[in-house]
């Protein structure tokens, strides 16, 4: 917990924002991330088209999710082969 307090204190000091402003930004950032992860998950499960995902979160995030998914699938295939 002390690390979170250190992060908060450092951000307040370095951004010259109030603690409330930093907390608000952190909350908004967290919600955006959760929303993006939800949409990318829907895309990877085939519930959204690639174009819909790109429109919703941007091509950079979609391509990153695709690369991570491919790497995970390769790792899984390797693990199943070695058994």
Verbal overview:
- There is one protein chain.
- This protein is an all-alpha fold.
- It has one domain (2-81).
- It has helices spanning 2-15, 19-44, 50-57, 59-81.
- Helix 2 (19-44) runs antiparallel to helix 3 (50-57) and helix 3 packs across helix 4 (59-81).
- The chain is elongated and about 50 Å long.
- The termini are far apart.
Element layout with pairings:
Layout: H1 2-15, H2 19-44, H3 50-57, H4 59-81
Report a brief summary of the structure.
With 83 residues, this protein is an all-alpha fold. Helices cover 86% and strands 0% of the residues.
- Low-confidence segments, given as residue ranges, are none
Order of helices and strands: HHHH
Largest sheet: none
Number of helical segments?
4
Tell me, rounded to a whole number, the average pLDDT: 96
Termini Cα gap: 41 Å
Rg value: 18 Å
Approximate shape? elongated
How many extended strands? 0
Instruction: Assign a percent range to the helix content.
Output: over 70%
Beta-strand residue fraction: under 5%
State the secondary-structure class: mainly alpha
The number of domains is 1
């Amino acid at each position: 917990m002390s690390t979170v307090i250190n992060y908060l204190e450092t951000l307040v000091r370095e951004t010259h924002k109030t603690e409330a402003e930093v907390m608000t930004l952190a909350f908004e950032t967290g919600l955006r991330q959760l929303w993006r992860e939800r949409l990318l998950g829907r895309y990877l499960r085939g519930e959204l088209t690639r174009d819909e995902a790109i429109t919703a979160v941007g091509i950079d995030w979609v391509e990153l999710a695709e690369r991570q998914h491919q790497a995970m699938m390769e790792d899984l295939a390797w693990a199943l082969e070695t058994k």
